[in-house]
Amino acid sequence: MPIFPVADPADPRLSDYVSLTDVALRRRIEPERGLYIAEGSTVLGRALAAGHTPRSVLCSARWLPDIEELLGSTHQGHVPVFVAENEVLEQVTGFHVHRGALAAMQRPQLPTVDELLATGREGGPARRVVVLEDIVDHTNVGAVFRSAAALGVDAVLVSPRCADPLYRRSVRVSMGTVFQVPWTRLESWPGDLDALRDQGFTVAALALSDDSISLDDLAASQPERLALVLGTEGDGLSHAAIDAADLVVRIPMSGGVDSLNVAAASAVAFWATR
Q1: CATH for 3-106, options being 3.40.1700.10, 3.30.1330.30, 3.20.20.450, 3.40.50.300
Q2: Residue 210: burial class (beta carbons within 10 Å; 0-12, 13-18, 19+)
Q3: Residue 240 CB coordination number (10 Å)
Q4: 202-206 and 226-230 as β-strands: parallel, antiparallel, unpaired?
Q5: Residue 256 has what pLDDT?
Q6: Contact in structure between 229 and 193 (CB atoms under 8 Å)
Q7: What are 169-214's pLDDT values in tens digits?
Q8: For domain 113-272, which CATH number applies: 3.20.20.10, 3.40.1280.10, 3.30.420.40, 3.40.5.60?
Q9: What does the pLDDT look like over 32-78, one tens digit per residue?
Q10: Phi and psi (nearest 5°) for 250?
C-alpha cells in the first residue's frame, strides 16, 4: 500500500482536501472534480461496501492501522494514503479532524429517474419514495437519508437546488446511509413529478393547507406507490410543488406547534407509512 508522510499543508497532492469548511467552494469544486469526501473510518467503510472507489486517503498516524486494514479487506490496497500530523490536517482542511481520517472518493454516476424507480429495496419496483425540494441545510438532508434507510424508504429524489447529499456534512449526519439508499437529482422542477405520476405514484405533499388530509388518513388507505414531497426549511413547499401534487398531507399537531423540522417530519411520515 503506497503510504506518503506529508508535512507541508500546501502539498499539491492534498488539493482534494483543501478548505473543507468553505461550503460555497466545496459545492462548486467537488462536482467539477467528480469527488466527494468521506469522513471517518465508519463512513469510509460504508462507502467501500457500496462499491464506491477512493481516490486517496488522508489520515493521522494513529488511524493508519485501521485504514490499512479497511483498504486491504476491500481490495483497495493500491490507494495512496497520505499521513500527516493533526496540525497539518487542520491547516489543510480548516477544522480539527477528530475522526482521524478523510477519503476523497470518486462521485458515482447517478441513475435516471426510471432506473431509480425500477427496483426497490426488496427487489420489486420502488413502492415508497421521498422527494426533497430545495432543502438547503446539509444536516437536514443527511438526517432525512438516515430516516429513509432506517424506515424502509426505497429511494430519494432531490430537486435541482437541493443541497448535495454527498457533501461531507450530509454524509456524516447520515452515518453513510446516503450510500445505502438509492437517490438521484431531478432536472426539471416541479415538472419531473409527472414522471412519478406516470409510473403510478400518488404524489403527496407534506404541507399546511385548508384542503389537507391527516397523515393518519393517508396511512389508513395508503396507495400502492407513494411519493412523499418535503419542502425547504422555513417556507416549506413552494406553491408550484403543492399544486403539482395529487394531495396535501399534514401531520397532526398539538401544544400550539404548527409544524416540525423537516428532518423530524420526514421520520414521522416514513414511520406512519412504513
Answers
A1: 3.30.1330.30
A2: exposed
A3: 12
A4: parallel
A5: 78
A6: yes
A7: 999 999 999 999 999 999 999 999 999 999 999 999 999 888 899 9
A8: 3.40.1280.10
A9: 999 999 999 899 999 999 999 999 999 999 999 999 999 998 888 89
A10: -120, 150
Task: Give the Cα separation of 250 and 135 in Å (integer).
Answer: 18
Residues 153, 129: Cα–Cα separation, whole Å: 6
The Cα 111–Cα 187 span in angstroms is 12
Task: Output the nine-digit C-alpha cell for 77.
Answer: 490496497
183-185 β-sheet, strand order: 183-185, 155-158, 128-132, 226-230, 202-206, 247-250, 213-214
Q: Do domains 3-106 and 113-272 have the same CATH topology?
A: no
Average pLDDT for the chain: 94
pLDDT of residue 235: 87
C-alpha–C-alpha distance, residues 228 and 126, integer Å: 13
Q: Are 131 and 71 in contact (CB under 8 A)?
A: no
Q: Evaluate whether 44 touches 171 at the Cβ level (below 8 Å).
A: no
Kind of pairing between the strands at 202-206 and 81-83: unpaired
